[in-house]
């Protein structure tokens, strides 16, 4: 054998062996890292609107379609105070934010997921409610309307307090890790934007009349990694990261704009005048378009191209102001505030059908497979098909006297925040519904 060829062959074998060993060590390191870091599974509901921030429950699950105050109730727990944030479900915990006006406390509450027993309650802010008396808080709003987000190690929550917007990080046992003052906040109607998690960041918004801001904070320390000013206008929509036009985009709607940013750097990708001033809903996408809706000063649903071309593909005047929309197989589903379910075709906005449900809606619908679960403010809940052919109601249920929070649906169970009027007093409960 040629000596040079033999040496080359030995070198190749050694290189191959080194590559295999390196790959083994890399996999081993990743396995060890994953063993140390709790993972978020399909059986969790880790932040506002679920895994993809689109209101769609993941996995093959069959939550109950029938329930009442006694039927299919696994447990319920009374909660002090009031809040409209959606439950967050991770591991063995159900987590919510609440505000007690009598005590002037804003807290995070942890409930055992299986038994419904209170694990812990951590007061985040004590006092600082004076701004409520000086400004306008909408009668339907609360001082705990944000949903908690978790990365599997920490919990992140937004509260408006003492004329400012604050983001706080806690560990899974309820101990405060860090707290960051994001900006001044002039109260107008309320605050309800939930934090979003992307990469090493937690992303928060504070749109308000004093001058808004969107910021990406380091999840471990709270350090501001990037920050962008927003218009000085009231707005309430949560930041969402959507996969659209082939890339991850941080979408902000409202302030008369639809804005797309790089979620890692805050760099603007595109921005157009495609929304109303005040939005509450979270944007959704079909991969090609971004769909937004608002209700002040005009009612407005719009579809804009997600590629940065600036094209508004279609728009209509449906009032989808508070409940966020859903997208499935090229069709957009909505519960209008006035108690009407609707289906629009994503490509051109063609109305496929509308059907009256009844009541007024603030809670957003959640989709499980081809079923949509939607509850009105009076606690009347509807289950109907996500089908463009026609409105098809599957079930109707009644629980409680007041529902403003969007349910979390995971692991085959429904976690919902409900208020009962007991002896003329409003009492909130968290329910776990499951067969």
Report on this structure:
It is a single chain. This protein has a domain at 1-36. The chain has helices spanning 3-36, 131-134, and strands spanning 56-57, 73-79, 88-90, 93-100, 105-112, 118-126, 136-137, 149-150, 154-161, 164-171, 176-184, 188-189, 196-198, 201-205, 212-218, 224-230, 240-244, 247-254, 257-261, 268-272, 284-285, 289-294, 300-305, 312-316, 326-328, 331-336, 340-345, 351-356, 366-368, 371-375, 380-385, 393-398, 408-410, 413-422, 425-433. A hairpin with a 4-residue loop joins strand 10 (164-171) and strand 11. The chain contains two helices and 35 strands. By secondary structure, the protein is mainly β. It is globular. The longest helix has 34 residues, at 3-36. Residues 1-37 have low confidence and may be disordered. The chain starts with a helix and ends with a strand.
What percentage of amino acids are in beta strands?
35-45%
Give the helix proportion (percent range). Answer: under 10%
General form: globular
Q: Biggest sheet, open or closed, and with what strands and sense?
A: 5 strands, mixed
The largest beta-sheet arranges its strands as 1-29-30-31-32
Give the tally of β-strands. 35
Pick out the low-confidence regions: 1-37
Distance between the termini: 73 Å
Total helix count?
A: 2
Helix and strand content put the structural class at mainly beta
Mean pLDDT: 91
Rounded to an integer in angstroms, the radius of gyration calculated over CA atoms is: 23 Å
Secondary-structure map:
Blueprint: H1 3-36, E1 56-57, E2 73-79, E3 88-90, E4 93-100, E5 105-112, E6 118-126, H2 131-134, E7 136-137, E8 149-150, E9 154-161, E10 164-171, E11 176-184, E12 188-189, E13 196-198, E14 201-205, E15 212-218, E16 224-230, E17 240-244, E18 247-254, E19 257-261, E20 268-272, E21 284-285, E22 289-294, E23 300-305, E24 312-316, E25 326-328, E26 331-336, E27 340-345, E28 351-356, E29 366-368, E30 371-375, E31 380-385, E32 393-398, E33 408-410, E34 413-422, E35 425-433
Parallel strand pairs: 1-29, 7-12
Antiparallel strand pairs: 2-35, 3-4, 4-5, 5-6, 8-9, 9-10, 10-11, 13-14, 14-15, 15-16, 17-18, 18-19, 19-20, 21-22, 22-23, 23-24, 25-26, 26-27, 27-28, 29-30, 30-31, 31-32, 33-34, 34-35
């Amino acid at each position: 054998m040629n000596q040079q060829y033999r040496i080359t062959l030995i070198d190749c074998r050694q290189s191959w062996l080194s590559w295999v060993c390196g790959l083994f060590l890399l996999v081993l390191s990743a396995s060890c890292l994953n063993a140390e870091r709790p993972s978020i599974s399909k059986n969790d509901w880790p932040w506002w609107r679920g895994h993809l921030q689109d209101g769609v429950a993941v996995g093959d699950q069959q939550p109950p379609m029938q329930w009442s105050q006694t039927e299919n109730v696994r447990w319920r727990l009374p909660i002090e105070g009031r809040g409209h944030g959606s439950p967050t479900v991770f591991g063995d915990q159900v987590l919510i934010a609440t505000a007690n006006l009598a005590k002037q406390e804003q807290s995070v509450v942890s409930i055992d997921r299986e038994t419904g027993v209170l694990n812990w309650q951590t007061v985040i802010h004590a006092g600082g409610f004076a701004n409520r008396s000086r400004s306008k808080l909408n009668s339907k709003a609360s001082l705990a309307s944000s949903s908690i987000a978790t990365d599997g190690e920490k919990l992140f929550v937004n509260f408006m307090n003492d004329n400012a917007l604050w983001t706080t990080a806690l560990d899974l046992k309820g101990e405060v890790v860090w707290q960051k003052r994001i900006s001044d906040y002039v109260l107008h109607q309320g605050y309800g934007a939930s934090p979003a998690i992307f990469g090493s960041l937690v992303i928060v918004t504070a749109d308000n009349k004093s001058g808004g801001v969107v910021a990406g904070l380091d999840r471990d320390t709270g350090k501001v990694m990037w920050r962008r000013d927003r218009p000085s206008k009231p707005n309430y929509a949560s930041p969402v990261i959507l996969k659209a036009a082939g890339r991850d985009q941080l979408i902000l709607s409202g302030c008369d704009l639809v804005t797309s940013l790089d979620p890692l750097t805050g760099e603007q990708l595109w921005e157009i005048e495609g929304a109303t001033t005040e939005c509450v809903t979270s944007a959704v996408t079909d991969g090609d378009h971004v769909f937004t809706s608002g209700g002040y000063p005009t009612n407005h649903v719009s579809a804009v191209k997600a590629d940065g071309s600036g094209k508004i593909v279609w728009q209509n005047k449906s009032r989808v102001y508070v409940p966020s929309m859903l997208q499935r197989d090229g069709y957009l589903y909505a519960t209008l505030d006035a108690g009407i379910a609707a289906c629009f075709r994503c490509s051109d906005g063609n109305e496929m059908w509308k059907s009256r449900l009844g009541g007024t809606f603030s809670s957003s619908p959640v989709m499980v497979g081809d079923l949509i679960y939607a509850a009105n403010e009076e606690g009347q809940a509807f289950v109907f098909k996500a089908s463009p052919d026609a409105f098809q109601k599957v079930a109707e249920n009644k629980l409680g006297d007041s529902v403003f929070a969007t349910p979390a649906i995971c692991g085959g169970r429904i976690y919902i925040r409900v208020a009962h009027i007991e002896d003329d007093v409003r009492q909130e409960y968290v329910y776990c519904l499951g067969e």
